[in-house]
Amino acid sequence: MSLIHTIDKLEAWFGYKDRQNKTLGFVPTMGYLHEGHLSLIKAAKSENDLVVVSVFVNPTQFSPGEDLESYPRDIDRDYRLAYEAGADVVFNPETDEIYMPGSSTAVEVVGEFTKKLCGASRPTHFKGVTTVVNILFNIVKPDKAYFGQKDAQQAFIIKKMVRDLHMPVEVVICPIVRESDGLAMSSRNVYLSSEERKQATSLNKGLQKAEEYLKSGIAGCGSVEKLIEIIEGTIKSQNLGVIDYVQILDAETLGDIATIEPGKKALVAVAVKFGNTRLIDNRVLSIEKGI
Ligand code: PAF
Questions:
Q1: Are 126 and 157 in contact (CB under 8 A)?
Q2: Are residues 20 and 120 in the same domain?
Q3: Looking at residue 247, which CATH number applies to its domain?
Q4: Which tens digits make up the pLDDT trace of 176-228?
């Protein structure tokens, strides 16, 4: 297991490991690893000969005023956790190793689906994500890359980019990992005060109630308006969360829908701010045809 900071050293390691004859799984992260990241590393380990984990807090996906400076960092802890989960390398570059001096190129997926959900309140975010993921893919050249379903819109956009650009990598999306009380794991959970942490479970509770209502089969249970009302009501029953969005979209296209139709998958997604901490969560819901 190696901790590598430069592209040259990473390439030397690839040579040493004879990677041409091996499959390589890649887990891009911004560090401060939690069980969600570790599940990606374990999935990569089970499906590939070699696993590279990048730890890079990417400045271009933060807007001015967001938490770039305060984003939690602990490379020694990340290195240990990644190793225990089965990683072969942690790649932890400096910013100027990723962005060449004078760099003026970006990769942007365009479409209405990038402007919804997180794209509405973070308009430059996904351009930063797709640019850095492109750069990292070019450096690491993975066979498979692993992302979490918690960032559902990011996963959708990255899959679209890989498809549109014929990128030679398979994107694998792994399920959300939750704390025992249902809160989706996030590096940003450490920012929460103890009261905020308690109330943050309302995101998952709201999604759970919406799922129960949808599955109840009562007339109109697929109504997007009604389902949003249920989720918002659950979050607002607590006093600290400020809703950024609660949206229900077609999971295959991220297009708008008014009803969750039987046999169709819907992405039910929420973003809520607790103080300066913005949390996201989602579920993909559907009702079977003929029910
Ligand atoms: O999901 C993340 O942690 C980041 O957006 C990613 C994919 C590592 C790009 O910086």
A1: yes
A2: yes
A3: 3.30.1300.10
A4: 999 999 999 999 999 999 999 999 999 999 999 999 999 999 999 999 999 99
* Mean of all residue pLDDT scores within the chain: 97
Confirm whether 287 is domain-assigned: no
Do 154 and 271 fall into the same domain? no
Per DSSP bridges, beta strands 241-250 and 89-91 are unpaired
114 lines ligand 1 (CB under 6 A): no
User: Tokens 């690839």 sit at which residue?
Assistant: 14
How many structural domains is the chain composed of? 2
Closest CA to 108 of 184, 160, 166, 39: 160
Residues of the domain holding 141: 2-174
Report how far ligand 1's centroid is from the alpha carbon of 251 (Å). Answer: 21
The verdict on 141 and 250 lying in the same domain is: no
Percent of the chain with pLDDT strictly greater than 90: 98
196 lines ligand 1 (CB under 6 A): no
pTM above 0.85, yes or no: yes
- Can you read off the two tokens belonging to residue 239? 């006093």
Ligand 1 center from residue 126 Cα (angstroms): 10
